[in-house]
Amino acid sequence: MTDPVISTSHLKKSFGSKTVLQDVDLNVPAGAVVGLVGTNGSGKSTLIKCLLGLLKKTSGSISLFGEDPWNLSASAKSRLGYVPQIVKLYPWMKVKHIVAYTSAYYDAWDPVWAETLLDRWELPRDHRIGPMSPGQLQKLALVLALSYRPELLVLDEPVASLDPVARREFLSSLLEICQHEQHTVLFSTHITSDLERVASHLAILKEGRIVLFDELDAVKDRVKRLRITAASDLPSNFTVRGALRSEFSNNRAMVAVGELDDRLVGELEEKWHADVAVEDLNLEEIFLELHHE
Amino acid sequence: MNNQTTKVIRRPSRLGAVWLSYRTRWLMWVMAAVALGQLSLLVRGMWPNLTGPMVVVSPETRVLKSAEPSMPNPSPFASVDYNQGGGKTDWANVRSLHVMDLNQSPRLLEKGGVPKLESLAICFSITDLQLIQLCELYDLKSLMLYDASLLTPTGLKAWKNETSLKYLRLLNFRLAYDPRSLDWPPNLQTLICDDPYGIKVVRLEEWQQLSNLTSLSTRLIPRETGLNPEVFKSLKRFPALKRLFVQELGPQYPHLVSELQSALPNVRVRPNSYDPVIGLRAGTILVSGLLVLVVLSVQMSSQFATTASLLTPGFARSHLAPVIAVILLMALLSFGLYLIVGCSVVGSLGLCGAFVLILASGTRVIRYLLNQNGTPMPGFNNPQAIFAIIFPPMGLQFLINFCGPELDWFLRGGHPWFSVALLAGSIWGAIDLCRWHIGLKRELEESGGGNVPLGMLDYGGWYNWGKDLAALRAGEGKRVPYAQRCMDSKNDRFIEQLQGGHPITTLQVWRIGCVASSMDWLRATTVVIVAIWIAAAFLVPDSLSQFKQMPAFTGFQILAMALLLPLAFAFQRRPMQEIELLRPVTRRDWVTTWFYGVASEILPVLLIALVFGEVMLWSGTIGVWSITDACLVTVIFVGILSVVFTFGMWALTLNSLWKIALAGFLGYCALLSCVITPIGLQFQRIEWWHTPTIMVPLIVGLYLAAGVGYWIARRSWMNWEVGRSM
Predict the structure, then answer these.
(1) For residue B249, what pLDDT is reported?
(2) Fold for domain B75-273?
């Protein structure tokens, strides 16, 4: 088994007295496409910046390509691509200038691929960066991050500013890269439908902690909704083991569980003389169930 | 009936809401502190009694400065102060000489001793015989005698044929009140004649014969006889007189200058001396008023740059009311302060609102530069901030150094129409500022700046991207602003270099990320220095010799700004470091490149500044200095710059706006001191300049501070969390 590309253990990050990340354990295997989801302010961007060495961890450990990201070597950095949430590029440069400027740093820069991406996303080479819309900027940042085919691509809400067409283009490119070149991708997003299309793994961050990290299919297999119809009214202290959320009225109940197994269904049927129907959840529903207070 | 009490949520009034936006911003408290500081000065009347950098006088003493034309310096490269021994002076080429005692300067009275001498100043008394000898030996163009008390009519016959003499200054001249007839050099243009007893009318009649005399300074009123109406009559008969300087005699003749001015409408009549401290204090009041307004304007910009300013009913009225109130209060406060420091009512009225006029006109100029020409401004985006921090102190220095007498005359109410114009301009300025702020959001949207964040330190908020883009779409490359085209061609050359497979260093790539280089800026401003130099050399008459220092003054200012620019350019790159740090270089290499990069931008400017400075020092434009002086200035200059550089690099890593602003301000002050030091030293020979017990610790301290600054900066960069937003 290969070493994980990203690995954290008991990672903690505080800004003054405010703790943003707490006890984060995350191991991203090579070739995985990890979707990082969480509510606003859950610490997604902070986690990504700590993983990249842009922010200094308060405690715990982080490893990126087997190195401490705070002192990442040049060779490790050449294998890394990053697109921040708010793209800031030199506004006085033209598209062709920033492409040339970035290419100067990378030996593995693929000019043909860069041109292809510029064409695909309709970015004129002579346009200046200053007046570009946020969506165009994000496209350009993606071109710059993809053009040297990095082994690890870290994207902080990469499609937030893109229109539907560009989003589809981006996801296609991402799939193309992942399928052909076995790259590792970590991206945060709020658009779970996109994540479902491309992600192999899902990480859910809640209040600075990873509350769920697994392969996407495994998550979908584990997190289910149960519709229970009991023979008689359910008592006021009705509970289900491992329930994320439950609602009940008279003899009916709807329960979301984080770890479904056959034994649980059997237990419920037996205890409450009930019919138990198991429903699949999409990612958005899983996310909502996990964040239900 | 429902007894349940309902909680009433009271909404603040509109003005209350505006007040909330003020009191929750720390910058506003800075503004209040500056205003209160002024108020305390008004109440307590506390002003430092400084006449220069190092001379402290008692409150009763007034150190006056001469308003008369100073002696022209024919050749700045060949001026010698004989009093310092002359050293290894090349006497064959000396054209300007300053001696203490003619008896101690035998070379002067030898034939061929100083063959090219044109300008001579003698401190001790001179006899008739010595004057005759000098007139025989030299064709002087200017002569200054600090003690002319021993001269008699017999001696003065000697200069009757001195046709080349244009400038003559006679102090303690006892013959002006003498009834006998005297001889004068026929082609005099400037005559400064000071007799403690005043002059006889016969003297004026003699001077009327000098057809080229344009500037005259003398004591018009005899000590014993008082004002003589004949004097007025005689003065009117001067054929070419343009400037008349008279000694004021206090309460006895309080309106002497005004009366003379009324009697001589074609002659500029001025007092022969003035108190420079009044101008300095008035300038301080003006600049502090300006600072308050700048802060106010920054607040207004942030309010009026929002969409709410266009869509909220009553927004403009409620937001402008406190602004107008503050402006009025500041004007009133300034008026009181100007009166306290010694300005006249007319002068104070003219100046009391000048801070508004300066900011409004400055904003217009910078708006033109940014919105019409699209010239990118480094570092600070807010035009008011740029204007207030950099230009007013420069302008003030300029006025005090080069237009001191005229400034003093204005402060004393000598230019009532100018005061009225200033007051009217100030009212226009207030209206213009308010109008501009009301339309700010619309202007930003139309210029395409709506997408760019509007912050004091953001690049591009005021840049006319829309125009740039429109020009590009229309294929009119020529309409792209010049500055932008310069950057484009630099970047195009870089692409060619890359595509040509030429080796590229990390430093070269780093430079491409800079909006411009300080050398670009220096090249662009060279034209200003050259223009000023040409004007000073060829257009300004010798009688206005203080203007000859203008190239040095402006040059130093421009160089000081060019030295600060690399740090300002670097500051603009801060937001991009989140990506830059992830380029394939180690953190150590990234930091090193940054230090080398900024230093490499500063170094060429520093070398130019040193060469420029040394030339100025050696040329005598700002004084005749020894090699030791020149070395000391160099060592101190480099020391101050090193401190500015190291602490500036440290400031780049800060995440607090006010700390950055403070560091920037201190850096600018330090650089300004680099500029002022040599010029200031020329005006006042300060004792500590040559005192090793002071200079050595000062120099050691400077370089120690630079070392500590480097250590702090480097450490700070190595630990900089670039992902942390400010």
Answers:
(1) 67
(2) 3.80.10
